[in-house]
Amino acid sequence: MWKSVIAAGAVLSLAACSDSGGSNPPTSAPEPEAPAPVSAAQGEEPEVGAAAAGPADGEVELPADYKSWSVFLSGIQKAETKQIRDIYLNAQAESASAAPLPDGSVLVMEIYSVETDDAGEAVLGEDGQMQKKALSKVFVMEKNAGWGGGQPEGLANGNWVYAAYEGNGAPAQVEYNACRACHAPLVDQDYVHRYPEYLGQR
Ligand code: HEC
């Protein structure tokens, strides 16, 4: 099953973007900056030549103006990984009234570290919420006609292609098959985890 595929990306999947249920993220996980080893076998290369049109994972650009886009969800508190996440969507994605999202849709998720005390525990503000410290990663998913093909079974995500950046905008070294494996089961909501809270209510 798809879970076996993410083994190599477990560092990333648990530390940087975990919570999809069953797994047990280490509560004392270090910051996600520790780069997951990038193996030559990951999905950077088109698996089935002709079918893999469009950019490969990692080649989708970080949109320069995403901060001016609509907010999809903000202040998502991830206590287990001590992160706060904000998600933005571009106009094409916002125009969707049902899954699947239209071609040209882009979703950007910022991942912030949180303020911690000397013991490494998250410091809560007066509102009882963790407090943002620094932008550590920016994840992007974009879809277009003909993109995302050539993936092995279990890693197909329709026409979506993924990219990850450091907080300073440099490309992040991540295991893209882990992104795919964790989003792949969500066929009914076009591979978007938070679809029900936002697009599903339109
Ligand atoms: C362990 C599972 C898992 C992995 C691995 C994972 N994600 Fe996600 N992703 C999620 C969940 C869950 C959300 C919803 C936001 C939240 O609760 O953190 C999400 C949200 C997103 C979103 C916002 C749209 C949405 O689906 O709601 C983007 C963009 C995204 N992820 C990109 C990536 C990229 C790029 C990678 C790989 C570098 C990645 N994800 C790896 C589980 C995962």
User: What average pLDDT do the residues reach?
Assistant: 82
Give, in order, the helices and strands.
Answer: HEEHEEEH
Bound molecules: heme C
**Strand percent estimate:** 15-25%
Overall structural domain count? 1
Give the CATH architecture.
3-Layer(bba) Sandwich
Task: Provide the CATH superfamily.
Answer: Cytochrome P460
Number of helices: 3
Instruction: State the total count of DSSP E strands.
Output: 5
Radius of gyration: 17 Å
The CATH topology is Chalcone isomerase
Widest β-sheet, arrangement of strands: 1-2-3-4-5
The low-confidence parts are 1-16, 18-41, 46-50
The separation of the N and C termini measures 33 Å
Principal-axis shape: globular
Q: Estimate percent helicity.
A: under 10%
By secondary-structure content and strand pairing, the structural class works out as: mainly beta
The top-level CATH class is: Alpha Beta
Largest sheet: 5 strands, antiparallel
**Quaternary form:** single chain
Features:
disordered N terminus, 202 residues, binds heme C, mainly beta, 5-stranded antiparallel beta sheet, Chalcone isomerase, single chain, 3 helices, globular, 5 strands, 9% helix
